[in-house]
Amino acid sequence: MRAQWFGGRLTADSRLALESNLMSQAIELGRRHLRRVCDSTSLGFKAAADLPVLSEVLGQPRAVAALAFGASIASQGFNLLP
User: Fold this and answer.
1) Is the Cα dihedral 16, 17, 20, 22 positive or negative?
2) Which tens digit of pLDDT belongs to each residue from 1-60?
């Protein structure tokens, strides 16, 4: 089935047909397909204790800004939750 594209979007009928086709082709995956193994010798360290201590959070700048904002609220009833 070929999808019909209009303005860079699938038509509703084409999308339903495509989803139905994909679902009919679903296969069961075994445990070996659902697990990724990493060769620990490729990491360059033996234990997390061997890594340098970081003074900043890597990535997630918006999350860090949100935490800083939340921590700056000096009113009762505002909590930071994990």
Assistant:
1) negative
2) 454 545 556 677 777 777 777 777 777 878 877 888 888 889 989 999 999 998 888 888
Q: What are phi and psi of 9, to 5 degrees?
A: -130, 150
Which has more confidence, 70 or 1?
Answer: 70
- What does 2-67 look like in DSSP terms, one character per residue? PPPEETTEE-HHHHHHHHHHHHHT--PPPGGGS-----GGGSS-SSGGGSPPPSS--S-HHHHHHH
Determine the average pLDDT of the residues in 69-79. 85
What residue spans define the domains of the chain?
1-48
Rounded CA separation 30/34 (Å): 7
The DSSP output letter for 70 is: H
